[in-house]
């Protein structure tokens, strides 16, 4: 847990005005090159200082032999050196009051006793100098809001969602990152914790909880000695914003593997799950589930109850969906008499069975009728959240913007289950920019709906 | 309660020591009396009332059931005498200091397990589980971070797959759920106040219509 000064230093480090890369190199295949490339590619608008004893210019940037030669305060240093030189570099950072450092090298607590000792030295070097250290053994940090890509994963940062991620593993960070790109919601901030020599889950949760542009916090966790502090901070966070956790290590094999991955004991999976539930955290069993829940919570208004309605132009997919929704505690209340009357006026001489879930069959093909139907259903007092199903069709226009107006009108969440594929980018965008989470599979839309209903219950203290 | 902790040198407490700590915290246990000889055992059985249970009381023998150190449902003084001799003949060779404890025999109810542990990542954690013959089959346990609230206690209990058993399954009477949750919370408080308790194992706790009782207890101290 961080004190006010530490939190301030961490904020300066992760939204830096000046960044130095110690160990920057011209060799394209190496991490020291990728990090510099990432920072440039990400569009960082502050000053970038590559540091290398011999090089003079890399990627068009002037190279400095050491921090002293830079001659101005550095907010963030990324150290891309081997494990022994990393510690010397940290000492150097301490001499110039660097606010934060990211150490990407491995070879610490994850490789055994000698590595552990080295990591202890690193912890001491950082704490002595009040350096907010992330890592070692980390992919790095990504802050799309500050256009800072301080990872060795060179991607561009163009849009920002309200979803931020704390991850023990860089690889899982990339899994989530790619998935979120597909889902049209690029990650806001991603912090790869790695071996957690100084900063741990509790600290970064505290940071993201205080971050105004983060609406939902996703977490991937293998295991941490700060588990108690983490759940305590999470408990305080959830009244402000939801925290969704994915934990690995269900199997013995994964638990053992975790020790050599980020040097963490994985802990009892069941114990973690139960204590997460006690501590008002939402849990996800897969990356897809994590992203689906975060998506719904980051863009749609919260439902006021667990009443759900599904409206579909085709019965089969809705059967799959209804099974999934039923298993997570969604309730299909019967429609009110007003709703039925309004539907009868809409479906004159059309054989539609007016029950929830509602199969409108071919009557649901017309965008106009579809929108009217969704309007009627959302007006029903027993419906708190609605999942309209749509099937992509060349000759039918998907009425995304009209649906978005209905979310505003009724102040109830709509989640779209869109039967189509990744090519439906425009519809995805139209929906999600207007508060409607857009999903391509029944599992994902059910996870999204379930997450919203659970979070509402947590907020209400149930 | 402190007096119970000041005097203990042993890591694993005797059942009677553990139960005295529980009683001092207001957690109900079966009635019990220690006995070193047959006369004391018979007197204890009379005081407690038949049927009774005899268990060995030895620092050397922790898993007393495995070595024939538990005799259940003793109806008469003759049976008590016989049980006493059987226990002594089995355990005296291992521990010359062995005594017995005479306990009341609790009417059947739903068997529950309550445990605590000191986890390297979470610190003190409490566990509630379905006990009895289904324990291993169901592997039905739920953990809670100590200290737990009353709400946590109820949520933990309701989340057990064995919860319907507590609600009165197939014509059985409904268990006294309040009393079970109360024990759970008091155990959590006990461990929170006394960090020298590394582990508690209450197995079984019998939940009956009119209350819940700790039948066997094991404490491991720092």
What distinguishing features does this structure have?
heterodimer, A: about 450 residues, alpha/beta, Rossmann fold, 3 domains, five-stranded parallel sheet, 19 strands, about 15% strand, B: about 220 residues, six-stranded antiparallel sheet, four-stranded antiparallel sheet, 8 helices, 10 strands
Walkthrough of the structure:
The complex is a heterodimer of chains A (462) and B (222). By secondary structure, chain A is of the alpha/beta class. Chain A has helices at 4-14, 31-41, 67-70, 83-95, 113-128, 170-182, 201-209, 227-237, 252-262, 269-278, 287-299, 315-327, 337-346, 367-378, 400-410, 425-432, 442-459; strands at residues 18-22, 47-51, 57-58, 61-62, 76-79, 100-103, 132-134, 140-143, 148-151, 163-167, 189-192, 216-221, 243-247, 282-284, 308-312, 358-359, 385-391, 416-419, 438-439. Chain A is 42% helix and 16% strand. Chain A has a seven-stranded mixed sheet with strand order 9-8-11-10-12-13-14, sandwiched between helices. A five-stranded parallel sheet of chain A has the order 2-1-5-6-7, with helices on both faces. Chain A has a five-stranded parallel sheet with strand order 16-15-17-18-19, with helices on both faces. The model of chain A has no long low-confidence stretch (mean pLDDT 94). Chain A has three domains: 1-141, Rossmann fold; 159-299, Succinyl-CoA synthetase domains (Rossmann fold, 3-Layer(aba) Sandwich), CATH 3.40.50; 301-459, 3-Layer(aba) Sandwich (Rossmann fold). In chain A, helix 4 (83-95) runs parallel beside helix 5, helix 11 (287-299) crosses helix 17 (442-459) and helix 14 packs parallel to helix 15. Chain A is elongated. Chain A has 17 helices and 19 strands. In chain A, strand 3 (57-58) and strand 4 (61-62) form a beta hairpin. Chain A starts with a helix and ends with a helix. The two termini of chain B are 17 Å apart. Chain B is an alpha+beta fold and 222 residues long. Helix content of chain B is 34%, strand content 29%. In chain B, the strands form two sheets. In chain B, strands 5, 6, 7, 8, 9 and 10 form a six-stranded antiparallel sheet that branches. In chain B, strands 1-4-2-3 form a four-stranded antiparallel sheet, covered by helices on one side. Chain B has helices spanning 2-6, 15-24, 38-48, 77-91, 135-138, 150-159, 163-166, 177-193, and strands spanning 32-35, 52-57, 70-74, 99-104, 110-119, 123-130, 141-145, 197-208, 211-214, 217-221. Chain B folds into two domains: 2-28 and 107-221, D-amino Acid Aminotransferase, Chain A, domain 1 (2-Layer Sandwich), CATH 3.30.470; 32-104, Dna Ligase, domain 1, CATH 3.30.1490.20. Chain B contains eight helices and ten strands. The mean pLDDT of chain B is 92. Classes of the chains: A alpha/beta (462), B alpha+beta (222). Chain A binds chain B through residues 223-228, 231, 265, 267-268, 270-271, 274-275, 277-279, and chain B through 119-123, 125, 141-145, 148, 152, 155-156.
């Amino acid at each position: 847990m961080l004190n006010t000064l530490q939190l301030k230093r961490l904020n300066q480090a992760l939204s830096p005005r000046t960044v130095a890369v110690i160990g920057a190199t011209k060799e394209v295949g190496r991490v020291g090159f990728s990090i510099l490339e990432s920072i440039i590619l990400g569009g960082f608008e502050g000053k970038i200082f590559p540091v290398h004893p011999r090089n003079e210019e890399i990627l068009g940037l002037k190279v400095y032999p050491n921090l002293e030669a830079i001659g101005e305060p550095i907010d963030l240093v990324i150290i891309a050196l081997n494990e022994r030189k990393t510690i010397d570099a940290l000492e150097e950072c301490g001499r110039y009051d660097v606010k934060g450092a990211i150490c990407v090298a491995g070879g610490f607590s994850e490789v055994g006793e000698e590595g552990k000792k080295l990591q202890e030295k690193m912890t001491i070097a950082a704490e002595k100098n009040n350096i907010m250290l992330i890592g070692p053994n980390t992919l790095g940090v990504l802050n799309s809001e500050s256009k800072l890509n301080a990872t060795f994963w060179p991607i561009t940062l163009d849009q920002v969602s309200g979803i931020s991620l704390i991850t023990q593993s860089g690889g899982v960070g990339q899994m989530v990152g790619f998935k979120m790109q597909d889902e049209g919601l690029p990650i806001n901030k991603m912090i790869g914790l790695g071996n957690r020599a100084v900063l741990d889950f509790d600290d970064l949760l505290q940071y993201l909880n205080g971050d105004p542009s983060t609406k939902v916090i996703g977490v991937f966790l293998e295991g941490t000695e700060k588990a108690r502090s983490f759940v305590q901070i999470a408990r305080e966070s959830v009244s402000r914003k939801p925290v969704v956790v994915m934990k690995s290590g269900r199997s013995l094999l994964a638990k053992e593997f975790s020790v050599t991955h980020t040097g963490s004991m994985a802990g009892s999976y069941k114990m973690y799950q139960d204590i997460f539930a006690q501590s008002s955290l939402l849990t996800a069993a897969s990356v897809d589930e994590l992203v689906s829940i975060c998506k719904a919570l980051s863009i749609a208004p919260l439902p006021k109850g667990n009443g759900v309605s599904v409206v579909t132009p085709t019965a089969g997919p809705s059967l799959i969906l209804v099974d999934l929704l039923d298993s997570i505690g969604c309730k299909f209340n019967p429609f009110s008499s007003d709703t039925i009357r309004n539907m009868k006026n809409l479906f004159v001489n059309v054989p539609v069975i007016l029950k929830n879930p509602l199969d409108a069959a071919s009557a649901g093909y017309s965008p106009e009728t579809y929108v009217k139907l969704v309007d009627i259903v959302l007006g029903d007092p027993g419906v708190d959240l609605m999942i309209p199903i749509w099937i992509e069709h060349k000759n039918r226009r998907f009425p995304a913007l009209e649906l978005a107006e209905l979310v505003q009108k009724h102040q109830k969440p709509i989640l779209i289950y869109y039967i189509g594929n990744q090519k439906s980018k425009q519809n995805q965008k139209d929906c999600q920019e207007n508060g409607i989470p857009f999903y391509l599979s029944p599992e994902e839309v059910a996870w999204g709906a379930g997450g919203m209903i659970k979070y509402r219950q947590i907020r209400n203290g149930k | 309660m402190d007096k119970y902790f000041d005097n203990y040198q042993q890591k694993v407490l005797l059942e009677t020591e553990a139960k005295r700590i529980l009683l001092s915290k207001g957690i109900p246990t079966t009635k019990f009396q220690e006995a070193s000889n047959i006369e004391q055992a018979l007197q204890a059985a009379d005081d407690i009332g038949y049927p009774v249970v005899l268990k060995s009381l030895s620092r050397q023998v922790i898993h007393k059931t495995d070595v024939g150190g538990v005799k259940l449902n003793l109806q008469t003084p003759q049976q008590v005498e016989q049980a006493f001799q059987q226990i002594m003949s089995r355990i005296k060779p291992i521990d010359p200091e062995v005594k017995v404890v005479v306990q009341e025999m609790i009417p059947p109810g739903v068997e529950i397990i309550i445990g605590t542990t000191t986890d390297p990542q979470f610190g003190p954690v409490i566990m509630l589980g379905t006990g009895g013959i289904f324990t291993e089959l169901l592997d039905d346990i739920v953990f809670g971070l100590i200290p737990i609230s009353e709400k946590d206690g109820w949520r933990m209990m309701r989340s057990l797959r064995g919860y319907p058993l507590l609600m009165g399954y197939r014509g059985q009477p409904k268990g006294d759920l309040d009393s079970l949750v109360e024990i759970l919370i008091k155990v959590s408080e006990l461990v929170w106040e006394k960090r020298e308790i590394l582990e508690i194992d209450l197995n079984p706790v019998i939940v009956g219509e009119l209350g819940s009782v700790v039948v066997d207890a094991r404490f491991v101290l720092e």
